[in-house]
Amino acid sequence: MSKQISNISKIIAWVISGLLTALFLFSASGKLFLHPEQMVQMHLGDWRILIAIGEIGSALLFLFPKTNKLGTFLLSSYMGGAIILHMTGGMSIVMPATVLILVWITGILRNPEFVKLK
Predict the structure, then answer these.
(1) 44 — phi, psi (to 5°)?
(2) Which of 37, 47, 72, 112 is deepest in the core (most CB within 10 A)?
(3) Is 90 within a domain?
(4) Does the residue 31 lie in any domain?
(5) Overall number of domains in the chain
(6) Average pLDDT for residues 42-60, to the nearest whole number?
(7) Confidence of residue 34 (pLDDT cuts 50, 70, 90)
(8) Residue 76: which of 51, 100, 106 has the closest Cα?
(9) Residue in 103, 107, 86, 106 with CA at minimum distance from that of residue 42
(10) What is the pTM of this model?
(11) What band does 116 get if pLDDT is binned at 50, 70 and 90?
(12) What are 76-110's pLDDT values in tens digits?
């Protein structure tokens, strides 16, 4: 029974990882091509290319099993910055906080040693 639960959690983790990676890649493409003016409004216009490249790199590291731990930590940092930016800009933090929670749930499902106390 635990083997079946393990397989189900692996499948769920891969699906969420794929969806989160797609979300981050879409977000980065928006920074680069679709809506660069939003970055200018947040006074980050000069940094938008560097931010988008970091977002793409972190998302790809998060997707692949060998680098998933590093990707989890990098995306956590990225989303922490997004939460702070939303807070200082008077915007809602619901979306970046939800994405951050999903990153950690996926990271724990894919790397259960994150929560082991030993």
Answers:
(1) -120, 20
(2) 72
(3) yes
(4) yes
(5) 1
(6) 87
(7) confident
(8) 100
(9) 86
(10) 0.84
(11) confident
(12) 999 999 999 889 888 899 999 999 999 999 999 99
Residue 37 resides in a domain: yes
Helices assigned H by DSSP within the chain: 2-29, 36-41, 48-63, 68-88, 94-110
Distance of CA 5 to the CA centre of its chain: 25
The whole-number pLDDT of residue 92 equals 92
Scan for tokens 């082991």, then name that residue.
Answer: 116
AA letter at 22 = A
Backbone angles phi, psi at 117, to 5 degrees: -85, -15
Q: Which residue has the tokens 């660069």?
A: 36
Residues of 40-69 as b/e, b for ≥16 C-beta within 10 angstroms?
Answer: eeeeeeeebeebbebbbebbebbbeeeebb
Structure tokens at 61: 């590291």
- Residue 110 and residue 53: Cα distance in Å, rounded? 24
Q: What is the rounded CA–CA span in Å between residue 67 and residue 63?
A: 8
Q: What six digits make up the tokens of 57?
A: 């790199």
- Domain ranges, residue 70: 2-111
